[in-house]
Amino acid sequence: MSDVAVPPVVIEAQGLNLTFTTNDGPVHALKDINLSIHKGEFVSFIGPSGCGKTTFLRTIADLEQPTGGTLSVNGMSASEARKARAYGYVFQAAGLYPWRTIEGNVRLPLEIMGFSKADQAERAKRVLELVELSGFEKKFPWQLSGGMQQRASIARALAFDADILLMDEPFGALDEIVRDRLNEELLKLWARTQKTIGFVTHSIPEAVYLSTKIVVMSPRPGRITDIIDSPLPKERPLEIRDSPEFIAIAHRVREGLRAGYEEAGE
């Protein structure tokens, strides 16, 4: 028997369903989702467009309300977790306010939450250092590249030091070279902060490279077709993508995606 303690579960879905009501009839976005995410895991959600991966992330963030089943975040309901500021959320677009400096954008949620000016300044300095944007505090978003803007968006999500970081395709609009670099930086950031990360992506290599656990989802109604616990080491140079282990995991992800399409009759 192993003496290694299993980290606590921080996000748990049981029999989770979500059906949207539309003029064309009900849309079953999520169906019978059962998933446990442990503290400190890096969990990627991958699947075709419309499979519910972003919808599931949004239910964790209390931006969508499930129509069946249960969901707990840090032992609370999603609504309670939102009020307790249990997570930071990074959207597909950086969403920075063009009239505020980079530091001003990072400080914005802290201002809203009523942190003191001194605390705001200290936190902004710390998270901008974490994402390697020291020296860019007084720049405006339009003066930064797309990759730097997305790093500023990550800094803003980290500023109030939530345990959970939810990321919805944050690098999807970036070119491959920038994306590779940000993938490397994100792994280093995760190692330094020990956050629990939920990450939505369309990219099989990105999911395999980043994750300790990969959740493969099917076309609508969004179901989980496979959950893969990655055997890769936590420290991962980009070259690991050429290894037999990496290629084998990528193949299993592809098989899970294919199975989902076949079940959906596509």
Please state how the strands of the largest beta sheet are arranged side by side. 5-6-7-3-8-9
C-alpha-based Rg, rounded: 19 Å
The fraction of residues in strands falls at 15-25%
- Return the average pLDDT rounded to an integer: 90
Q: What share of the residues lie within helices?
A: 25-40%
Quaternary status? single chain
Tell me the CATH superfamily of the largest domain: P-loop containing nucleotide triphosphate hydrolases
Shape: globular
The count of strands amounts to: 9
User: What are the segments in which pLDDT stays under 50 over at least 5 consecutive residues?
Assistant: none
Count of spatially separate domains: 2
Number of helices: 8
At the fold tier of CATH, the topology name of the largest domain is Rossmann fold
Outline the biggest β-sheet. Answer: 6 strands, mixed
- CATH C-level class of the largest domain: Alpha Beta
CATH architectural type of the largest domain? 3-Layer(aba) Sandwich
Q: Secondary-structure element sequence?
A: EEEHEHEHHHEHEHEEH
C-alpha termini separation: 44 Å
Domain ABC transporter: 13-240
Family: Belongs to the ABC transporter superfamily.
GO molecular function, one term: ATP binding
Protein name: ABC transporter ATP-binding protein
